[in-house]
Write a structure and sequence with these properties.
The protein has 190 residues and is mainly alpha-helical. Helices cover 86% and strands 0% of the residues. The chain contains 8 helices and no strands. The protein is globular.
């Protein structure tokens, strides 16, 4: 049995914890729910969220299976260096704090980090990925924020900051690629 643990890839371990997030989150949200209406809303979104995480996990596995050996190795290194498995595990540790402003904010920050990791797992990001991640965000944020206006405003600001950061990362990556391309052109001219 110990041998199986050693052979499990970082990707498989990350996805195992990733797929468990909806069930753990739903359980914590239901415990923290203030009334039956809130519980009904949480229960209505729970199967959607579970399905989205499961399907996203399947897509990541499929993309990995079709990726080059170099990409697969890069994913393993990325998950090790970024502590991807630890991040995915940490969400469960934070869930008992759901309901408090700080706890909810921390949980959403862990979700933002997991989204960043998910983006890096695809060799080429599918066109639908950002929309699916946005839908997941909306569902999780509505559950975590509950009826707290303060929390909703805080999550909205965090999302705006995240979107700005994401745009800047894309611009930096493009600038880096352009510079690499121009450096290669200069090398060709010599």
């Amino acid at each position: 049995m110990e041998n199986n643990k050693e052979t499990k890839t970082q990707l498989e371990e990350f996805l195992q914890y990733f797929e468990q997030i909806p069930a753990d989150l739903t359980t914590a949200l239901l415990k923290a729910a203030a009334d039956e209406d809130e519980k009904n809303i949480i229960n209505s979104f729970a199967p959607v969220l579970s399905n989205q995480f499961r399907e996203l996990s399947l897509q990541i596995r499929d993309a990995s299976a079709k990726a080059t050996l170099q990409h697969q190795q890069d994913v393993e290194i990325f998950l090790r260096v970024s502590s991807g498995v630890v991040v995915a595990k940490s969400l469960k540790l934070a869930l008992p704090s759901i309901g408090s402003l700080v706890g909810n904010f921390g949980i959403t920050q862990i979700i933002f980090t997991i989204k960043k990791i998910i983006r890096r797992l695809f060799p080429r990001r599918p066109a639908w990925l950002e929309t699916v991640l946005d839908i997941i965000d909306e569902i999780i944020n509505s559950g975590v924020a509950g009826s707290s206006i303060k929390m909703k405003n805080m999550l909205s600001q965090a999302e705006q900051n995240f979107l700005k950061e994401s745009r800047l990362v894309v611009l930096l990556e493009k600038a880096h690629e352009d510079k690499q391309g121009s450096d290669d052109d200069e090398d060709d001219e010599k």
